[in-house]
Amino acid sequence: MDWTIAAFLAADAVQNGTIYALLALALVLVFAVTRVILVPIGELLVFAPLTYVFFLPSGISGLPLQGVIPGTAWLSAGMLAVWAALDRAAPRRAGVLLGGALAVLGLAWWGAHGVPLWLGWILAVLIVFPIGPASYRLFFEPAKNASVLTYLIIAVGLHFAYQGLGLVFFGPEQYRLPAILPGQTPIGSVPINNQAFLVYGFALFCMLGLYGFFTRSLYGKALRACAVNRLGARLLGISPAQAGYVSFGIATLIACVAGMLLAPLIQPAYFQGFLLGLKGFVAGILGGLISYPLAVIGAIVVGGLEAWASFQASAFKDAIVFALLLPILFWRSLRSPEVEEEE
Amino acid sequence: MKRALIGLLALGMGLSLAQQAPLKIGVVVSATGPAASLGIPERNTLVILEEQVNRRGGVAGRPVQFIIIDDASDTTQAVRATRKLIQEDGVLAIIGTTTTPASLGMIDPAAEAGIPVISLAANLEIVAPVDEKRRWIFKTPQTEQQMSTPIVQDMKANGVKTAAYIGFNDAYGEGWAKAFEAAAKEAGITVVASERFARTDTSVTGQILRILSRNPDAVLIGGSGTAPVLPQRTLKERGYKGLIYQTHGVANPDFLRVGGDNVIGTRLPAGPILVFDQLPSSFPNKNVAQSYVQQYEAKYGIGSYSTFGGHAYDAWAILRPALERALKKEQTSNLAAFRKVLRDEIEATKGVVGTHGIFTMSPTDHLGLKFQEAAVMVEVVKGESGKLEWKLVRTFR
C-alpha cells in the first residue's frame, strides 16, 4: 500500500464514515430520549430515494412508472390514518392526522404525474417522513415503560416488516438516481464525487444543528431532560410521548435526507438500508449510544476500518467490522454502571 | 345417422376420458422474492407451453397439466412444495426451481421418492457428480465452468495476459472464482487478484484499488442482477482502461438500466437466445430461440423476454419427448415405475435443440450442453437510438 492508495482509501473512509455518523447520530438521539434502538432506520433511509424514483421522468429512471403511486405513500398514509383512529378522543388532532394522510396521497399522486426534479425530491422526503413518528405512535407508544429489550424486539420486527414491504414496493433490483451535483473534483490526487460534498455538508449541518437544538432551544433542553431522567422530566411537565415523536421525527428526517443525498452514489435497493443502519449502530455503540461526539468518531473509525479491510481482505470485510463490536462491548460492559436509571 | 351419432358420442366420451386423466407435471419457480426477476419469465414460459401443447392435442393424445408452485426464493418452501407435488398431486416429474440453494435442497426429497427433476438453476453441483441421489436430477442452464471457457478464450483472443477477479462473497461468486481461476490457469492467463464484495455493499473502492494496483489487462466481475454495476462503475471512475467482463448473471434489462453509460463496452458470455436476431443463420438453435421469443413477446409484450425463460422452455423441450417415449413403455397409473422409466428416457435425451444449446445427456452428464452452442460473447453497446443494447461479438463454433 503506497500513499496514493492510502489517500484514496481515506477518501472512501470519510464518505462511508459520514453516512454512518449521520445514522449513528439519529440512533443515539432516539435511544437517549426513548430507549428505543431504531433498527429500521436503514429502511427509512432507502425508502426516500426509492420513492423519488417514481417521481422521475422515465427518460431518467429508465422505468415506465408514470402515474404509479409508490407503495411507501400508501404505507405512510395508512399509518397516519391508523394514528388518527387511535387518537379519535382528541378530534382536532385526529382531523389533522387524517388530513395529513390525504395530503401524503395527494402529494404522491402529484409527484407521480410529473413534477420538476427538485420538487419530486422534496415530495419524496415529505411522503416518507411520517412513517417515522407514526411508527413510534403505533408500535412503541402503546408499550410505554417497557424494557429496552421489548423495544428492541419491536424494532427488529419493524425492520423485517419494512424490509419485506420494501421488496414488495420496489422489487428486488437496484435503481439509478441522478446526482444533484454531477462530476468530480480532485482534492490532492484524489477525485471526490461532487455529490459527496453535499453529504459532508449535510452531516456538518446536522451536527451543528443538533448541538444548537439541544443547548439553545427550550424544546431541545426538554428532550435532554427526558433523556437524562424520564420520570423527573414528566414531573416538570414534559411529555415523554411528545419527546418520542420529536426524536423519531428528527431521526427520520436525518435518515431520509441522508438517503436522498447518498442515493446517486450507491444505486439504492430495498436491501441496502439494513447494513448501513447496522454499521451506524456499531458506530453509536462505540460511544455507548449516549455520546454524540464519540458516535461520530466511532463512525469514522468504522468507515476507516471498512476501507482498510476491503483493500486487505475483502472476503472478511464485514466480519472484521462487526468483530469490532466485541472488544468495544467488553470494554463498555466493564466500565458501565450496573443498574441503569430507569426500569 | 344413428351410427354416426353413436360414433360421435363415443368419440366425445373418449375425449372426456382423456381429459379426466391429464399428465401432471410439477413446477416450482421463484415467482416472488429476490429471485423473482428470474422466476417470473420461467413461470410465464411454462404457462404459454401448457396452453400450446394442449391446444395441439397434448402429449400422446393426453392433456398436460402444470401444477405451478411459487417458492418465494426460499429453500424451505421449495422443499415443501416438492414434497406436496410428489405426495399429494402425484406428479410424473418436476421442473424447477430457479435458485441454486433451493435446487440443492430439492435433491433429497426427489431422490427419496424416485422422481425426475429438471432444475433451472446454474450451479454445477446440482447435477455433478451423478451419484445415487443425483441420478434423479437434471438441469438446463449453463454452468460457471461452461461460461468460464468462452471468457478465457475471448481474453486470449484479445491478448490478455493478466486478469483480476471480483465477485460476490456467496455461492455464486465463489463458484465463478473457482471456475474462472481454473480455466485461466489452463489457458496461461495469470489471475493477479481475487476480491469479494457483498450484494449489499455501497462502496467497493478498497477492492478496486487493490485490483488497479496489480494492473491487470482484464477484470471479470462475478455477480448477478444489478449489484455488479457498482464495481464496474468504480473501475470506470478510477480510470481503468482495460477490458471488463461480466457473467451471464447480468444478462437482463435491469443491468443496462442501472448501469447506464458506465457499462458500455462490457463483455459477457450469454446463452445465444440473448442475441437471437444477430446469430448467423447456420447457428443450430437460432430458429428455436427466435420462435420462442416471438411466442413470449406475443403474450407478454415486446422486449419482455429474458434468457431465463429460455431455461424453462428447454426443460420442457427435454421432458416432452421423454414423456412420449415413456408413455409407450409404461402406464402412468403405475406411478413409481413410470417415474423410473421417465428418468431413464430423460437421461437418453439426444440432440434436443433448445433455446440455449443442444442437449445430449448421458449417465454421467445430466446437463448435456457443450459451450460451443450454449454460449456466445456479447458486448454492451450504445445503439443508434441512444439506448444500450446487447451486441453479438463472436460465437465459439
What's the topology here?
The complex is a heterodimer of chains A (343) and B (397).
Chain A: H1 3-34, H2 41-54, H3 58-61, H4 71-86, H5 91-112, H6 117-128, H7 131-140, H8 148-170, E1 184-187, E2 190-193, H9 194-216, H10 218-228, H11 230-235, H12 240-266, H13 272-286, H14 292-312, H15 317-323, H16 325-335
Antiparallel strand pairs in A: 1-2
Chain B: H1 2-20, E1 23-29, H2 36-55, E2 64-70, H3 75-87, E3 93-96, H4 100-113, E4 117-119, E5 137-139, H5 144-157, E6 162-168, H6 171-187, E7 190-197, H7 205-214, E8 218-222, H8 229-237, E9 243-246, H9 253-259, E10 267-270, H10 286-300, H11 307-329, H12 335-347, E11 352-353, E12 358-359, H13 371-374, E13 376-382, E14 388-395
Mean pLDDT of chain B: 89
Order of helices and strands of chain B: HEHEHEHEEHEHEHEHEHEHHHEEHEE
Shape of chain B: globular
Major beta sheet of chain A, specifics?
Answer: 2 strands, antiparallel
Radius of gyration of chain B: 22 Å
Overall pLDDT confidence of chain A: 89
CATH fold call of the largest domain in chain B: Rossmann fold
Approximate strand percentage of chain B = 15-25%
Identify low-pLDDT runs of chain A. none
The spatial strand order of the largest sheet of chain B comes to 2-1-3-4-5
Helicity level of chain B: 40-55%
Span from first to last CA of chain B? 62 Å
**pLDDT < 50 stretches of chain B:** none
Under the CATH scheme, which architecture of the largest domain in chain B would be assigned?
3-Layer(aba) Sandwich
Summarize the structure.
The complex is a heterodimer of chains A (343) and B (397). Chain A has 343 residues and is mainly alpha-helical.
